[in-house]
């Protein structure tokens, strides 16, 4: 039964209080900007064109509506947990309180994979987009430092990926208050660029481009929804900030649900304008939004869109790195990873070693490891976390009904069931090799837990002390 020892609310409150906790400096606006920063990136500037061209056609609007609703089921479950348990660690911490230490570790280990690969994939994408942008000014990097290690292609290290990870790590080291302000500014500019495209593009919409509206039928719409769902993931990183929020019981649900709502509206609006400006068959390009503007000879707006895309990818990377640092902090504070990693600076309460560990992991992966085939691992890790949280919120309602809940998931357990079914459907449609790699990571995690975490668990040590004192 020691494998399933659970954290009590009192224990978690003691962990997050006094000198042990992180600085409480964020409000609802900051959380909303973190959510938008995590979700609006390559999805809106790239995926909209791909989904329209290959799957849904102009009916991509329905694809984003369906996937947004499916994602909202998981978001509601996260919102209840985040308001009830204002502690770092997101789904890892929620599982510790609901299912016990072993499953919490499994989920935490899963999230380390999710965030680690997400940081690396996004950094590599940022590098590729940035290099494409500067080529327009006649600047090209030497091939050997332009991409990850691939001697066959003549590349050995992705220098730009290394640089952006270093810059954002430095931003995180300034403290949560300062770094969130920088993120707020980038997200506001990014939203402004998206709105600029919508307003300008609306003047060039031709209703004839929306016909046929559903060229691939309902099957195409649902296939598009499965792909579009992955454009929304990232909002869960917002819940990692709950320990640093001044009024988490009120602001966490607002931040999670508002950010998802804003992103859903922007995705739908961009999709409608994009497919109205240009025939959907021409949108299978790397930069469909900028391409559509060039198609209607609005090159000056296309330049702003390129800037927005760069900022979009930057904020996604920032939030992924932030989520990874807080995950390392929570697991280390519990003793399942070495305790020294969770040490905080005295003034700004910044988990310096967690940031440095995240920097090292993202730098190595994005600089030298080609991640094209591993990108799906990010998705399977996220979907697994969504399923556990959706089940957990229903279980905790039964096992601990008297806990104070300032926000409650409506229509429970229906919402939980729908979240599990939608995420489970997407998981079973991932490739076999992705499942094999996921299982290998899972086994490695179990080895690490039983060889280190189980014996160094803070909760376990406290139980031993209590037993001795009672004896």
UniProtKB/TrEMBL annotation:
Keywords: Membrane, Transmembrane, Transmembrane helix, Transport. It holds the Pfam family AA_permease_2. GO terms for cellular component: membrane. The chain crosses the membrane at residues 31-53, 59-79, 91-108, 155-173, 185-204, 216-235, 256-280, 300-323, 353-371, 377-398, 410-428, 434-452. It is found in: Membrane. PANTHER family: CATIONIC AMINO ACID TRANSPORTER 4, INNER MEMBRANE TRANSPORTER YGJI-RELATED. The keyword Transmembrane applies. This is Amino acid permease. It comes from the Bacteria. One of its GO terms (molecular function) is amino acid transmembrane transporter activity. It is a multi-pass membrane protein. Its main location: membrane.
């Amino acid at each position: 039964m020691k494998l399933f020892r659970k954290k009590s609310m009192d224990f978690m409150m003691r962990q997050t209080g006094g000198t042990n906790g992180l600085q409480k400096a964020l409000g609802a606006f900051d959380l909303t900007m973190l959510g938008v920063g995590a979700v609006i990136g390559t999805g809106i500037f790239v995926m909209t064109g791909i989904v329209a061209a290959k799957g849904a056609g102009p009916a991509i609007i329905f694809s984003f509506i369906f996937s947004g609703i499916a994602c909202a089921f998981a978001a509601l479950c996260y919102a209840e947990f985040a308001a009830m348990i204002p502690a770092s660690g997101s789904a890892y911490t929620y599982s510790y309180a609901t299912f016990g230490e072993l499953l919490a570790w499994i989920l935490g280990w899963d999230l380390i994979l999710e965030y680690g690969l997400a940081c690396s994939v996004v950094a590599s994408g940022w590098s590729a987009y940035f290099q494409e942008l500067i080529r327009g000014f006649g600047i090209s990097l030497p091939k050997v430092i332009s991409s990850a290690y691939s001697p066959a292609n003549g590349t050995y290290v992705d220098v730009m990926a290394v640089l952006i990870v270093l810059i954002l790590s430095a931003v995180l080291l300034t403290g949560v208050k300062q770094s969130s302000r920088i993120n707020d500014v980038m997200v506001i500019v990014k939203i402004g660029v998206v709105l600029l495209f919508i307003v300008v593009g609306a003047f060039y919409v031709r209703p004839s481009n929306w016909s046929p509206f559903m060229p691939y039928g309902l099957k195409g719409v649902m296939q598009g929804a499965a792909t579009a769902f992955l454009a929304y993931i990232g909002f869960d990183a917002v819940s990692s900030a709950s320990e640093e929020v001044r009024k988490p019981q009120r602001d966490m649900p607002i931040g999670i649900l508002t950010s998802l709502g804003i992103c859903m509206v922007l995705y739908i609006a961009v999709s409608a304008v994009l497919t109205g400006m240009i025939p959907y068959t021409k949108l299978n390009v790397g930069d469909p939004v900028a391409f559509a503007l060039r198609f209607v000879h609005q090159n000056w707006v296309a330049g702003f869109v390129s800037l927005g895309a760069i900022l979009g990818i930057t904020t996604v990377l920032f939030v992924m790195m932030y989520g990874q640092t807080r995950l390392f902090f929570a697991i280390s504070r519990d003793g399942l990873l070495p305790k020294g990693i969770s040490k905080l600076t005295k003034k700004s309460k910044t988990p310096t070693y967690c940031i440095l560990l995240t920097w090292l992991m993202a730098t190595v992966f994005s600089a030298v490891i080609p991640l094209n085939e591993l990108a799906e691992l990010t998705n399977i890790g996220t979907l697994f976390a969504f399923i556990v949280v959706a089940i957990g919120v229903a279980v905790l309602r039964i096992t601990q009904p008297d806990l104070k809940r300032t926000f409650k998931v409506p229509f429970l357990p229906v919402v939980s069931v729908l979240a599990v079914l939608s995420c489970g459907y997407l998981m079973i449609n991932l490739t076999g090799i992705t499942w094999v790699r996921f299982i290998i990571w899972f086994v490695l995690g179990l080895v690490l837990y039983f060889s280190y975490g189980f014996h160094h668990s803070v909760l376990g040590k406290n139980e031993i002390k209590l037993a001795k004192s009672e004896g």
